[in-house]
Amino acid sequence: DMHVMQGIQVLNLSGNDLESVPPFVYSLPNLQELHLQNNCLMGIEVSRLEDIDGLGHVNLQNNPISDDLKSQLQSCKFTVLLGNDAVS
């Protein structure tokens, strides 16, 4: 039920072998922390994540993120964890 999910502030989808971010994630207006570590993510819709106003932290550790995506993430308004480094 999307109405119930609207209040989610922290979402942990780590360790699920995800290849992409589930579309419902981009529709969570109160999301503050998103944990996506230990998946198979290669691409992420960065601009859609930036549209989530309160999002402050995204953990993408242990995903096969491309160098191009890493450079896009460096200019985001939220903090991103990649490997052992945080970029913001």
UniProtKB/TrEMBL annotation:
Pfam families associated with the record: LRR_4 (PF12799)
Gene3D superfamilies, per the entry: Ribonuclease Inhibitor (3.80.10.10)
Alphabetically ordered keywords of this record: Leucine-rich repeat, Repeat
InterPro entries listed in its UniProt record: Leu-rich_rpt_4, LRR_dom_sf
Name of this chain's protein: Leucine-rich repeat-containing protein 20
Gene source species: Magallana gigas
